[in-house]
Design brief:
single chain; alpha+beta; 5-stranded antiparallel beta sheet
Length: about 140
């Protein structure tokens, strides 16, 4: 550190310790920023994959509602219906199992209705995922 006459105690520049500390702080901030960026990319990809699966599932179910799927195989004893097919290059299996469920309208307005109604429990296996829901068909 050089001092000029008349500048008692004034320094010029940074000491080595100050420079190392500043670089350490900057490196820490950079590491945290890169970790957050990597996490956001992973989350974004996961959300995109989930949305793509949801769109594909909706398209298959729309085909079921529009009766554009091939005819199902039906188990005569259990009445389970099974559709198989391909959507966007991936095989799917859709199974409809008849189930009795409590009638949600039973006694709601005082009108006599049956206690239970027949519905189907649908199970769609597509792209290593399984979606289950109730529906009438």
């Amino acid at each position: 550190m050089s001092m000029h006459p008349g500048q008692h105690g004034l320094r010029r520049g940074f000491t080595l310790l100050e420079a190392v500390l500043a670089l350490s702080v900057l490196a820490s901030i950079l590491v945290v920023t890169l970790q957050l960026r990597a996490q956001s990319i992973t989350t974004s990809r996961s959300i995109s994959a989930h949305q793509r699966l949801q769109r594909d599932t909706d398209a298959i179910l729309d085909s079921l509602e529009a009766s554009t799927l091939d005819l199902p195989t039906v188990d005569d004893q259990s009445q389970v219906r099974t559709w198989t097919g391909e959507h966007l290059g991936a095989v799917f299996t859709l199974t409809a199992t008849p189930v009795l469920v409590t009638n949600p309208l039973h006694g709601a307005d005082g009108t006599p209705r049956t206690d239970q109604i027949m519905m189907f429990r649908y199970e769609l296996a597509y792209r290593e995922q399984t979606v289950t829901f109730l529906g009438a068909h």
